[in-house]
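Exercise 7.
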Amino acid sequence: MVAYTNETPMKIITIANVEYSIPQPFAEGHVCTANEANALNQLLAENCRNNFAEKVKKAEDVKPTQEEFEAYVAGYEFGVRSVSTKDPIEKEIRKIVEASLAKFLAAKGLSKSKMPKEEYEKVVADTIEKNYEKLRQQAASIIEMRSQSLDF
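Solution. The predicted structure, written as tokens, is:
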């Protein structure tokens, strides 16, 4: 059972083009119940399986080893958004943030390729988390504009 109050932070999610508010009761330092720990372990297994699957499928003769998989799992972080999401709003949010970050870096004479991947992903994830509502609205507007047909 998810425990929350009126002060619990909320997030807007979209289900079949309908927006719903959902509580975000978990924060750093939260002690997991047995069920929460099981859910996190299941999520870790599913995410790592899904994310590593492409590497396994692309491998011709020699499949990745257990050691390579363990190295991937050891570097896995919950909450680091992946471009592979199927949610068009999440994809658009990432595009917006990455385009803004590219401009910011270029103004400083830097680029994505000059940043460590982990640092780049952390900046993107932190920016999304900090500005999620604004980005979600902006992304939804962009998607809506793209879906409007033109008269020819």
